[in-house]
User: What shape does this take?
Amino acid sequence: MKPIYLQLSEWLETEILSGNITAGEKIYSQYQLAEMFNINPATAAKGLNILADEKILYKKRGLGMFVSPEAGEIILRKRREQVRARLRELVKEADLLDISESELITMITAARKRNKEERA
Amino acid sequence: MNVIECRGLSKRFGRTVALHDLSFSIKENTITGLVGPNGAGKTTLLKIAAGFLRKTAGEIKVFSSPPFNNLKVSANTFFVDDNMALPATLNLSETLDAARRFYPNWDHRLALRLFDYFSLNPRQLHKNLSKGMKSTFNMIVGLSARCALTIFDEPTVGMDAAVRKDFYRALLQDYLQHPRTIIFSSHLLKEIEDILEEVLLLREGQKRLHLPADQLREYAVGLRGEEDTVKRFTAGKEIYRREQFGKNSIFAAVRNSFTKTELQEACAAGLEVLPVSAEDLCIYLTSRSRGGIDDVFNRN
Assistant: This one.
């Protein structure tokens, strides 16, 4: 299972991507996050620091952490790379099972259609 | 700053060695989980830190002083366990009033609110409470005392699951508002690991591991599959647990020093890569046999 601080940083990324927290806005403090998720504040700080290291957040001395202007862009780039990596895994598995490229593409199209229907 | 510092701490009871050459330190304002099997020395260690017991050898400092017979340590320390010495003639509400006079940081409002929330009867005597209710009351006193060092030794004995959950939440909330050093010994690591900053694991009176709590679940990894393949991937690694699994399959828990690529190769070779929970890791690291209880039933 993923460590909690990674789950936390991913949750924060999603909050930023979905526009719940916008560029320039102050992000939750480690204490707020600890209370929200019932975790130790040191763990919450780790989650925040990952995002600061990736320049998604920036620190203002004595004021806390804020969402950087490039946050959305950086997260998107990172998430796209993750999709690519998972796709490579998937293709590997498909090769193992002798699923052809066109069959795989048909499967993807079908999955996208089903997700769209479920959302509607 | 360190609230507790131990160097080569040992404690013997007659011929029994309870603690042996223990060295560690606990930082101020952290929550530390103290875990280990029965008889590992958890209670002995906590009682020495609280100043209840005298050490045999080595050094221990609490708030920079030896804790035994030390007024400064006892004024700043609260020790919660299931046989706390409370005055037998006072009812619960009178006990709270008495405790209030002892501890300068006592929060009476918090005490009364918790008292209400857990529906305790103010006129009841402590000795007449059920096991779980006793633990609940002790926990309320321990939290409300707001001592700079608060020690909970198996505080949840007899508590039902709902009360335990409330307790963990109350502990975290109060800690966030009033940071202090908390040590918490428990056999229920799964329930408390998320609120811990560090975990100190003891085995047979010695330190087995002292790590940030969130590193525990990445510390080891389990591989399951064909025996030879598992052996190939775990060669040269520290093996914590090895279990036979079906005819030619085994499960092995090893130190997680694999790279991502190595783990992918293991998957590709047909092995299952399984996470090892903090609780399982602690069990593996403290058990006497690498096969666990199954070794008792295996004749070969």
